[in-house]
Amino acid sequence: MNDLYYSADNFPKGLTKKVVESISHIKNEPTWLTEFRLKAFEIYTQKEMPKWGFFPKFDVDIDSYVHYVGSNQKKKKSWDEVDPEVMRSFERLGIPEHERKYLAGIEAMNDSETVYANVKKELTDLGIIFCDIDTAIKEYPEIVKKYLGTVVTIGDNKFSALNSAVFSGGSFAYCPKGVKTPMPLQAYFKVTAASSGQYERTLLIADEGSEIEYSEGCSSVQDMGTNFHTAVVELIAHNHAKINYTTIQNWKKNMYNWTVKRGLCYDYANITWTDCNIGANTIKYPGIVLKGDNSTGSVLSLAFAGKDQIQDTGARIIHIGKNTKSNVLAKGISLDGGVNSYRGLVKFEPSSVGSYSHVKCDGLLMDNHSSSHAFPYNDVSGQQGSLNYEATISKIDEDQLFYLQTRGLSEDDAKLLLVNGFCESIVKELNVEYSVEMSRLIRMILEDGKVISESQLQERKAVTS
C-alpha cells in the first residue's frame, strides 16, 4: 500500500487527516465522499465539546482510541461462510434463530466492518434496498449523495463531525413509493477490539406512502479497556410515510456511547423511535423534526443506570408544520449508585399552528444511593403550540413489595415484577423477539445490581444448568 495511507490491519491510535484519508482509501470511495470526510475532520478540529448534557463529566481522550478496526473479511452471503469465532458471538445474540423465522434481511457489523449480510429475495422483488452503507455508496451513490448529512449535518455538533469523518459500516435502506417492508429489517453491531472506536452510519429513506420497520441490537465484549461509540442515524419519511426504528443497546459498562439520531417528517408522515439503553455511559437524544403539516412523531425511551454509570437520555422534538403532534415517554431505572437523567427539548416554531406535544418521564430508584433527574427544555415562544409535560421520580414502593410478598412472592421476585411493570409501557412496543430479549436483560440487570439475592441467583443458575 502507498505510504501515504495506513493499511487496514495497522491503524494507529489517534485522529489525523491521514487516518481519515486512509479509511476512504481502504474503502475505495468516490472523490465526493473523501471530500465529505475531510470537510468533517476540519469541522471536528474546530468544534468545542457540546454544552448539552453531561459532556463535561466524561473525560475522554479521543486520541487514545483506534478509529478503524478492519475485519479482514469479505462480506458473507451465507451464514455457513462466516468465521466460526464471529459466528459464535452472533449466535449468542440469536441471529440464526431470527433469520429462520421471518427476517427480511440481516446485517452484522463487527468493529468497523460488516462481516455478514443477507437480503431475502422478497425485498428485492418489492424494490426495497437494504444493505450496509459502504455497499450503498458504491451501488446507489445518487441516493446516498442526495440524503447523507441532510438531517444530521456535519457541523451539527462535534460528534456528528467526528462520525462524518471516520464512519464505517452501518445500515442503508430505501423503500419505494407505496411499499411496506414485509417484516422488520434487522442489524446487529458488535465491538470486540479493546480501546477502539465504532462509528456506524445509518441512513433510512421511506419514499411517499411507504413504511419501514427497522430494528437493531448492539453489544460489546467485556474487557479491561474502554471503548468509544459514536453513531449517526438519519431518517427521512416523505409524505404519508412511516418509519419505526427500534434499538436495544447492551454495551459493556466501560463503553462511552455518544450517538446522534434524528428523523425528518414531511406532510402526514410519522417517525417512532423506541430506544432501550443498557450499560455504557450514554448521551443520546433521538430527535424528530416535524417539518410537514399533520406530521407526527414519538420517542419511547428506556434506560438502566447501574454502578459507575451515567445514562443521559431523552428526546428532541421540533414542531414546524401545522397541526403536528408528538409524544415522548421516557422511563429510567437507577440502581447500585447509577445516575439516570431525562433531558428533552420540545420546540414550537411560529409556523406550527395547532400543534401539540405530550411529554411524560418517570424515574424509578432501586436503592438509597442512586439518583434520577429530569431536565426538560420547552420552547413555546411561537405561542402556537400546546404542551403537556409531566414527570415523576419515586423509590420502589415498600407497600407494594409487602403486598406481593403476602401473596406468596419472595422479596426478589416481587421487585422483579414491579420493575417489569414499570417498563411494560415501553417493552410492549417491541416485536416479539426483542420483547423476550428485553425481559431477559432486565432480569440480568437486576441480578448484577444485587436486587436478586445471591442465594436465589445460585438456585436459578443450578436450575438452568
Model description:
The protein has 465 residues and is an alpha/beta fold. The chain has two domains: 17-284, no CATH class; 401-465, no CATH class. It contains twelve helices and 22 strands. It has helices at 17-26, 31-46, 84-91, 95-101, 121-126, 133-139, 141-147, 158-166, 398-406, 411-427, 432-448, 454-464; strands spanning 105-110, 113-119, 129-132, 171-175, 185-191, 197-198, 201-206, 211-220, 227-229, 232-237, 242-250, 255-265, 270-278, 281-284, 287-290, 296-305, 310-319, 325-334, 339-348, 355-365, 371-379, 385-395. The strands form two sheets. Strands 3, 4, 6, 7, 9, 10, 12, 14, 15, 17, 19 and 21 form a twelve-stranded mixed beta sheet that branches. The longest helix is centred in the last third of the chain and has 17 residues, at 411-427. The radius of gyration is 22 Å and the shape is globular. The model is unreliable at 95-106 and 451-465 (pLDDT under 50).
Number of helices: 12
**Total strands:** 22
Specify the helix fraction band.
Answer: 25-40%
Determine the strand fraction and express it as a percent band.
35-45%
The parts where pLDDT drops under 50 for at least 5 residues are 95-106, 451-465
